[in-house]
Design brief:
Strand order of the largest sheet of chain B: 21-25-26-30-29-28-27
Largest sheet of chain A: 7 strands, mixed
Radius of gyration of chain B: 40 Å
Helix content of chain B: 25-40%
Number of strands of chain A: 9
Shape of chain B: elongated
Largest interface: A-B, 81 and 88 residues
Distance between the termini of chain B: 88 Å
Strand order of the largest sheet of chain A: 1-4-5-9-8-7-6
Distance between the termini of chain A: 73 Å
Order of helices and strands of chain A: HHHHHEEHEHEEHEEEHEHH
Oligomer: heterodimer
Shape of chain A: elongated
Mean pLDDT of chain A: 90
Low-confidence stretches of chain B: none
Strand content of chain B: 25-35%
Structural class of chain A: alpha+beta
Number of helices of chain A: 11
Largest sheet of chain B: 7 strands, mixed
Number of strands of chain B: 34
Mean pLDDT of chain B: 94
Helix content of chain A: 25-40%
Number of helices of chain B: 17
Strand content of chain A: 15-25%
Radius of gyration of chain A: 39 Å
Low-confidence stretches of chain A: none
Chain lengths: 343, 652
């Protein structure tokens, strides 16, 4: 009997809670408390119960009846309130009040993405001087004394007496000046990513006197051309998309041997050849196996260790990304706020 | 450099069924980049970029030989079809007078011969081939010099023999101030150290390897020529050429350091063409002065080294076959190759085993090498909390979300934008323009320049993270990373800027920042533990700037979290309105209040009106409920100390 009462109560409460309308609620009231309702039926049957049990069961029946009545009353007022409630007019299309939001420079955004991509495969970012000794910028990188890059018309020199060992002071023309600095730390293997400002004496639609490069350097046992190829392809697919591929071609740099030019398949024709590319390919930048003279300059034994390096323009990869067709690179550093606030 | 050559010219020396497109593709992937193939009349012209390490490919013959080697590697038929050129065996009974003197420090080789010629137009095929190469056709004699240069790869020159009045060429270094008039009738003053030829009496009659002079070159009435091939010190050539701004095809080739062996073929081919196209007749002995002849060298190459660098196993026999096809002499010795580089293949880029490995790998095909990732068993450790790039990102993000837009300005500035005494500036010796001469010592002037250039914007909030520079005696200039910013609007508020910077400190968990009024300028000096962090400066009603030391920010920024238990007992809050002179800094009042009891959890400024400042004080204990009596005692202490120190009192 007791169990039956509890089950009736639970059943009634759950039905009441689920009810969505006053009409349904009335039906529930009739089902339980009406003349032929389940609770009423029990009350009618009370006399059939053993005399000594009667008071206990009787009060229990009353209790259940009261609980159900209360629940119905509460639900009824909630339903009526909801029905009569009206909201003030709200124009949800009106522009929101925004917290002030600035913008990061496109170059910063590119640097972050590049850093994230390379850190996934274990490269650590470093920073080395922007104003640097000729020794790190050229000498240790196997540039002969009279190489054109060391001319006054390609590299910026600082007015300062040349050091007897380290030579004159220059604005780094490439991030490769970090290579020997990294090796000098004396810790192998190396998996370095050097992203920095570089400077060259040129200014036109595709050159700015200041630009950014990202340089990868890997030195360790048995580092091979295949590792370089894999790393470059990993970057190309991560940064430009998985439908793009890279290839390497012979090229020439002082500080690598062999040296390569790296191409990626054109994003427009995907390698078939179109007006925008060279027979299906776009030049990305240089790379190569670290020249033994550079390893020696960094006190790394070239008989025991090998390495590869690549150094590409941040602006260049940025320009080659979908959607950014900037026809004059100088706009990046023109600081027109209307331009900067687009990104 | 780029050179252009016609397909028909190439095929004079290259016999293959490959299409121009196929030839271009194979050359690009294994040796030099063919950037474009274009139609030219009924022919096709290749536009080829040749890197400085391949002067052997800066010619029709060089490219034909290269293509004949690489095409068969991928199964395409190709042969090199050049018959060996021979010098005519002529010994005229009486040679015209000629004296060649030279400084052997300057000269590697000189070849020369005197010929009778008839000046006329070149045949059409010569004109086409030159024009497709971007060289203007002038007359048969001049055209032959250019034709030989493009075909064989070594520049050549002709003098009018009868205009060499003293029959003497004296090759020496120029002296400073000497003047020349080039064949295009322009006058130049030399700075000294240039390689020139004079006529034995001091008059300059040639700017060797760069350009002829007006007083010695052939004219339409020339009858006898001195055909002249000179191979000299390339570094001096480049210097002269860049200084004078004369960039002829000849000097662009010569400055690469051409192998003097090429002069042999250039001489023979030139004579052959003068005979066939200019009714040429040799009237002198052939002169060949050769003080610096390249020597054969041998490099030992191990199989292990090849495989380590390439990343896959290439059979030694394959490597041997590739090198042999490229013209090296190769002997196999167990697991090594002894590779001899003949004199005519000597160049800057054939000196170490790696140079030869490049030859093997590129002909083997870079495309046939698999992609792998470098795998090391060791990896250096990474600590986010001390990583400067992590903090740089955090700082930039904090500013971005405070409404600031990031700019990148040039660190080289003009004298006007340089702040401070100009003689202390890190200065560029060879600036590109007058407004990029000095390396800046502060970011602010550049940022103000950006504001100036964006006057159409009503409100401007910008920032930059970049280096500033200062001289450091004989060492590299100091390169100090700074965070700089400018706010520009109708009513710029110091507290608003300060608020953003305080927000940054909270975000980075930097504590103990002290703000003090600047003594010499209008604004605040910020410091942490007595170290100067930077300034906030009010320039005028509309403009406020700030510049902070990035390194110091980074050192004090932390990821370390300190846990204090959340109080179990309720906090008690009260507001105290304090009357004090406006000269008393609010920060001092707050600090003094806070010091009075450990039970004061927090003091904030609620309101400021005339001389009254209302402070919101939160009291809380970790161990008990605070009674009114306890709070009352602390309040008394606060009021007493404020009165003693600042003559301040409670507003009633």
């Amino acid at each position: 009997m007791e169990e039956k009462l509890i089950s009736i109560k639970n059943n009634a409460i759950s039905l009441i809670l689920e009810t969505k309308s006053v009409k349904e609620l009335e039906e529930i009231r009739i089902q339980f408390l009406g003349r032929n309702g389940e609770v009423t039926h029990l009350v009618k049957n009370l006399p059939k119960i053993a005399k000594e049990e009667r008071p206990k069961i009787g009060s229990l029946v009353n209790e259940v009846k009261n609980i159900i009545e209360d629940a119905i009353k509460t639900k009824e007022s909630t339903l009526k309130e909801t029905k009569s409630h009206t909201y003030p007019t709200l124009d949800v299309t009106e522009p929101g009040i925004r917290t002030p939001l600035g913008h990061l420079h496109l170059v910063t955004q590119a640097i972050r993405e590049i850093t994230d991509i390379f850190s996934q495969i274990g490269f650590s970012r470093v920073r080395y001087p922007e104003i640097e000794w000729d020794m790190y910028a050229f000498g240790a990188l196997n540039f002969p004394e009279n190489h054109p890059a060391r001319d006054d018309w390609e590299t910026f020199f600082i007015k300062q007496h040349a050091d007897s060992k380290r030579g004159p002071v220059v604005l780094t023309p490439h991030t490769s000046s970090g290579q020997v600095r990294e090796m000098e730390k004396g810790k192998l293997p190396i998996k370095m990513l050097n992203i920095a400002k570089c400077y060259r004496r040129q200014s036109d639609v595709s050159h700015t006197p200041m630009f950014h490069q990202f340089e990868g350097l890997v030195v360790g046992e048995k580092v091979a051309i295949s590792d370089l190829k894999g790393t470059l392809n990993y970057f190309v697919k991560s940064y430009f998309g998985e439908n793009r591929v890279s290839r390497i071609r012979p090229y020439h740099f002082q500080f690598t041997e062999p040296s390569f030019e790296v191409d990626i398949s054109c994003g427009v024709c995907l390698g078939k050849g179109c007006r925008l590319c060279k027979e299906g390919w776009l030049e990305l930048g240089g790379a190569g196996m670290v020249h033994p003279n550079v390893l020696k300059a960094g006190k790394v034994d070239p008989e025991k260790y090998t390495g590869f390096a690549f150094g590409w323009g941040v602006e260049r990869v940025l320009m080659m990304k979908d959607g950014i067709k900037i026809d004059d690179l100088r706009i990046l550093y023109g600081n027109d706020l209307d331009f900067l606030k687009q990104f | 450099m780029n050179i252009k050559i016609l397909d028909s010219w190439l095929r004079e020396y290259l016999k293959t069924s490959a299409t121009p497109k196929k030839i271009a593709e194979k050359l690009s992937l294994t040796s030099v980049s063919v950037e474009r193939i274009e139609k030219y009349k009924n022919d096709v012209v290749y536009d080829i970029e040749i890197t400085t390490n391949r002067p052997d490919l800066m010619s029709v013959v060089g490219l034909a030989q290269e293509a004949a080697t690489i095409l068969p590697q991928s199964g395409v038929d190709a042969t090199f079809a050049k018959s060996k050129l021979k010098l005519p065996d002529v010994h005229p009974s009486k040679s015209p007078e000629l004296h060649i003197k030279f400084d052997s420090k300057l000269v590697n080789r000189i070849c020369a011969v005197i010929m009778e010629v008839r000046i006329k137009e070149s045949p059409q095929y010569v004109k086409d081939r030159l024009e497709a190469s971007g060289i203007r056709s002038l007359n048969n004699v001049i055209d032959i010099t250019n034709y030989v240069m493009r075909e064989i790869g070594h520049p050549t020159h002709v003098f009018d023999y009868d205009r060499l009045l003293h029959h003497t060429l004296n090759i020496r270094e120029s002296k400073k101030g000497e003047k020349i008039r080039t064949l295009d009738d322009k006058e130049y003053t030399l700075t000294g150290g240039d390689i020139i030829a004079d006529n034995g009496k001091g008059e300059i009659i040639d700017l060797i390897s760069i350009m002829g002079t007006a007083n010695s070159v052939v004219t339409n009435s020339t009858k006898r020529i001195l055909f002249f091939i000179d191979n000299v010190d390339p570094h001096r050539l480049r210097k002269t050429s860049m200084e004078l701004g004369i960039r002829t095809e000849a000097v662009i080739l010569n400055e690469k350091g051409l192998n003097p062996e090429y002069a042999t073929d250039a001489l023979a081919r030139g004579i052959e063409l003068f005979v066939s196209l200019a009714d040429g007749k040799i009237i002198s002995d052939i002169i060949d002065l050769y003080p610096h002849q390249p020597k054969e060298t041998t490099i030992i190459l191990s199989e292990e080294k090849i495989n380590t660098i390439v990343g896959i196993a290439i059979p030694l026999s394959k490597s041997k076959q590739i090198l042999t096809s490229l013209g090296f002499f190769v002997e196999q010795q167990e697991n090594e190759l002894a590779v001899t580089i003949p004199a005519h293949k000597q160049g800057a880029d054939m000196q170490i085993p790696e140079d030869l490995i490049e030859e093997i790998a590129r002909v083997y095909g870079y495309i046939n090498i698999p992609d792998t990732l470098p795998m090391f068993t060791e990896q250096s450790y990474f600590h986010l909390g001390t990583n400067e790039f992590y903090w740089e990102d955090r700082i930039k993000d904090a500013l971005k979300y405070s409404g600031y837009t990031e700019v990148y300005t040039y660190p080289m500035v003009s004298e006007t934008l340089y702040e401070g005494p100009i003689d202390t500036a890190v200065t560029i010796q060879n600036p590109l323009t007058d407004d990029m001469v000095y390396m800046r010592g502060t970011l602010i002037p550049s940022l103000l320049q950006v504001v100036k250039e964006n006057q159409d914007h009503e409100t401007i909030h910008i920032f930059e993270v970049a280096n500033v520079y200062e001289k450091n005696g004989k060492e590299l200039p100091n390169q100090i990373l700074k965070l700089g910013g400018v706010v520009h609007k109708q009513h710029a508020s110091f507290l608003e800027v300060k608020g953003v910077i305080e927000g940054l400190f909270i975000d980075l968990e930097i504590k103990n920042v002290n703000f003090k009024q600047l003594s010499d300028r209008y604004g605040a000096l910020l410091s942490i533990d007595k170290k100067e962090l930077g300034t906030i400066e009010i320039l005028d009603k509309t403009t406020i700037t700030f510049e902070l030391d990035f390194q110091l920010l980074r050192e004090h920024a932390t990821l370390k979290k300190l846990f204090t238990p959340v109080g179990k007992y309720p906090a008690i809050v009260e507001d105290l309105a304090i009357i004090a002179s406006a000269h008393v800094p609010t920060g001092d009042l707050m600090e003094e209040i806070k010091k009075q009891s450990k039970l004061i959890r927090e003091v904030t400024l609620l309101d400021k009106y005339q001389e009254t400042r209302t402070f919101h004080i939160i009291y809380q204990s970790q161990d008990k409920n605070l009674s009114d009596k306890e709070i009352g005692e602390i309040r008394e202490k606060i009021l007493k100390v404020l009165n003693d120190k600042f003559n301040a009192r409670l507003k009633v």
